[in-house]
Amino acid sequence: MKPVSGWQMPLQWVASREFRAGKETPLPLVFFDEHYTWNGKMMKALEEIGRPWRRAVTTASLFSIQSAVEVGLGVAVLLDAGTQRDRMKVLGIAHGMPPAPTVDFGIFIADAGDLSRGAMGALWRFIADELEIVEGASTKK
Asked: What local confidence, expressed as pLDDT, does residue 24 receive?
């Protein structure tokens, strides 16, 4: 597999609108399943500031993550597009949180060949154009 393009996007800490947690109380975290790299980034960021945490919920579904956060079961990291701002609040340093991590995304093609022609070229141009309009995405070409 040959990488064609890669970019980073910022995550944000999110919690229910009513969520309150003491700085000494272990922070309940809502995790994606164990194969998701966001979990490690979330734990590392908290460990770097000495913030205690505990696993509250683990699921593979974005909808389940959002629901768990909305009802106050814990805190998660989500992309801006996954944040339900009418039912969630974004947490920051003022809430005792570390800076939110970023995540890497990429497009890989088995044989990239000439991406300027044919169906694969048209698909690549469409994807590249769409990525440029995503706020916060920095495309590395």
From this structure: 79
